[in-house]
Amino acid sequence: MNIEMRFPFFIARRYLFAKKSHNAINIITMVSVIGVAVGTMALVVVLSVFNGFEKLILSLFNAFNPDMEIRLREGKVFSVDDIPLEELKNIPGVVLYSELLEETALLTYRDRQHLVTMRGVNNSFVEISGIDSMLVAGEFILEHGDADFLVLGQGVEYVLGANINDFQHMLNLYVPKRGRSTGLQPSQAFNASSNFASGIFGLQSEFDMEYILVPLRLARRLLEYDNEVTSVVIGLDPAVNVSRVQRQMQELVGPNFEVRNRLQQQDFLYKVMRSEKWAIFLILSFILIIASFNVVGSLTMLVIEKSRDIKILHSMGASQKVIRRIFLAEGIMISLGGAMAGIILGGLVSWLQMRFGIVGIQAEGTFIIDSYPVAVKAMDVVLVSITVFGIGLLASILPIRNISLLLEKNK
């Protein structure tokens, strides 16, 4: 840094820490730093809380949303022979794959009934999703010899009043027969199956109220399919580049199929969460702008107090540009000081919340977590720093315009 750049920062540093003749300037400067620090801390903490909720919600969907999913762009079912499964398995990073078959079905238990989404899966799906670790009751058993079992969502169990320990009353599953008109007799209109439930899973209310898991062979029998599926799901190595694998898969399956990653499978939910996060970011940025008016006031009063110094410096040969840089550097120091303090405090508050769960969630009933989740992202910290710096820079530019008027009067 040359002398032309060091000189303004040297003088600005002296002005920042030196005692002023008017104590109000010191107070306003301190208020400016505190205001920027509090605003910055709020940005870091709020964005971290949104990140925590985003991570939590997406983790709840992980059991039903695999790393990658292949499905038709138009249409519902396709034959597994239509895609090159062997080539897909040989892509580096692909660990497992599973065939899925979904259809709407009617599930009854005693005198109750409920429309559900029947998802036919095989054992590979369990390894990909980890759904067996989400059980709240019973065991995850889909097949035992020739017997087929159902695994119900917690909401489905509640609506039907089902009891997995009831071995006298079976659950009845009805699926409309394909390509046949509805007759007067249910046996003519539906394929049916009576089965016991082996377990209950609890993920998220949207899934718990809708889904039941059945063996893939049972789903195909009810739907009268041979090797058709609605999708093929893929489990990836956690260390693999997801975007690269997705591109390779898309090239292999062709334009008639769509390869979607985990976020794309919940695209609407993800967009809503991101929109809420950035809306809050903008609101807090406006609050930070208001707090930065203290910087304007502090610099304006400092320019007035140092008017004699400004005239002396100008008389000694300091250009108007150099003098402006002195007070611009002063404003940037105030903003950066507040920003650094805010980021440190925001990080500390976020860490304390992650470590000890200080702020709990007050909600009626049972919630999946006891305190607000928090996740600090480096990119958010960088974005906050840039935002605070930009606001501080703009706030510093306004007062230094008065320097031109002072120098004009000095002529």
Fold topology:
Layout: H1 3-17, H2 23-61, E1 68-72, E2 78-79, H3 85-89, E3 94-109, E4 112-121, H4 123-129, E5 135-138, E6 143-144, E7 147-153, H5 154-160, E8 171-176, H6 186-189, E9 190-201, H7 205-208, E10 211-215, H8 216-223, E11 228-229, E12 231-236, H9 242-253, E13 257-261, H10 262-265, H11 267-291, H12 293-305, H13 307-315, H14 320-356, H15 378-397, H16 401-410
Parallel strand pairs: 4-10, 7-9
Antiparallel strand pairs: 1-12, 1-13, 2-11, 3-4, 3-8, 3-12, 5-9, 6-7, 7-10, 8-9
Helix pairs in contact: 1-14, 2-11, 2-12, 2-14, 2-15, 12-14, 13-16, 14-15
Summed up:
The chain has 411 residues and is α+β, with helices and mostly antiparallel strands. 53% of the residues lie in helices and 20% in strands.
C-alpha end-to-end distance: 32 Å
What series of H and E elements makes up the topology?
HHEEHEEHEEEHEHEHEHEEHEHHHHHHH
Number of domains: 2
**Structure annotation, total helices:** 16
Determine the structural class based on helices, strands and strand pairing.
alpha+beta
The largest β sheet comes out as:
6 strands, mixed, barrel
Q: Kindly state the mean pLDDT as a whole number?
A: 84
Specify the overall morphology. elongated
Radius of gyration: 32 Å
How much of the sequence lies in strands comes to 15-25%
The strand order across the widest sheet is 3-4-10-7-9-8
Total number of beta strands = 13
Helix content: 40-55%
Sequence stretches where pLDDT stays below 50 over 5 or more residues: none
